[in-house]
Amino acid sequence: MDIDRYAVFLPAERRGLIAEPRQTWMEWRGRRVHIARGGDPNTARARGILVHGGGGYSGALWPLAGLVAGNRDGVGVEILAPDMPLYGYTEEPAPTKVRYPDWIDLLCDIIATERDRDDRPIILFGASMGGMMAYEAAHRTGAMVDAVLATCLLDLSDPAALAAASRIKIGGGLTGPILRATGAVLGSVRVPIRLLADMSAMSRDRSLSELCATDPRGGGVSVPIGFLSSWLNYEHTPPERYRGAPVTLVAPGADTWTPPELSVKFLQRIAGATRTVLLENCGHYPIEEPGLSQLEAVGREMLEAVVT
Question: What gap in Å lies between CA 180 and CA 248, rounded to an integer?
Fold first, then answer.
């Protein structure tokens, strides 16, 4: 199982706490979107939606799902982990045409579908690139989302953030500008994401970084240049105009890929309630202690806050 391959990197006492998810599907704009689900929807008091980034998918992040939602055994919270088009088990009929705004639209529609089911609170947890997706979706869906948790808020209009997003430099650091400009011409050309991003920085554990980089459903995926260009050119809502749920940044303190100060700088500009927690000793994929326990504690606090 995908989950087992990633769970082995967690502290030993955590591995037996991971429940196997249910595999569900959602028809969306001509594609079949895979959504892993956990917890009992009949007793859960809130829902947590796990949003992956460019090197992840539901199977890769599921070992963190229970911790993120603030409940080890899944009781009291229903967890959803969708696979965005191109990744995981989502069936994508036209991979060369997928663009970053599709990901944002899909996340917003998942939120709206869940809200139509009932009025239980919704917490978004964005990992890596998924942090800005959660932020954007919370702004667009307004009162449908009750809280946002993000490990990273990488604003690509900031040159320092753009440099961090594309660690492999072409022509003296021109990777980002080149991809921004070539989307219209080479949009359908697919390239392995690991060739454009230094995925060796995914984790402080080299074996986990290697797994993330080579997983054919995650970091080993080939993505169209048009998708990368649309991501780099996407104009996220300026933080001064943000009108969504409170945002908590749970930044891995030892992240060498997207240093926490980049996300903190963005967070400090957000209009509305925010909070910053640095996860001690954690790399980009936060599996180390004591940061892992800190992440769990923040998730539990957030769950208690939205259900009271």
Answer: 30
